[in-house]
Amino acid sequence: MARELRIEIDDVLYEQLEREAHERHEDPAVYAGRFLAHQLDRARFLEGAQAFAEEHGQAFADRFGTGSSSHAA
């Protein structure tokens, strides 16, 4: 389900948004939505990676080592 979000940004940021959208031949609102979705997906991925490292990090390190000096393939 899509939802509408209204935000206010200053003129400098809006001009940058327009430039970047124009370079990609997109409407600024479409570009802003896609950009926001990408950033939120990235944040969700990093949160998942952190949770994985906290839960399984020690077992992974025990099995494969902890740095470039290890013999991991």
Low-confidence segments, given as residue ranges, are: none
Helical residue percent?
A: 55-70%
Largest sheet geometry:
none
Shape: elongated
Q: β content, as a range?
A: under 5%
How far the N terminus sits from the C terminus, by CA atoms, comes to: 44 Å
Q: What would you call the structural class?
A: mainly alpha
- Chain-averaged pLDDT: 91
List the total number of helices. 2
- Rg from alpha-carbon coordinates: 20 Å
Q: Tell me the series of helices and strands, N- to C-terminal.
A: HH
Count the strands?
A: 0
Structure, briefly:
By secondary structure, the chain is an all-alpha fold. It has two helices and no strands.
Folded structure, characterized:
By secondary structure, the chain is an all-alpha fold. It contains 2 helices and no strands. It is elongated and about 50 Å long.
Highlighted features:
mainly alpha, 2 helices, 68% helix, 73 residues, single chain, elongated
SSE map:
Elements: H1 11-23, H2 28-64
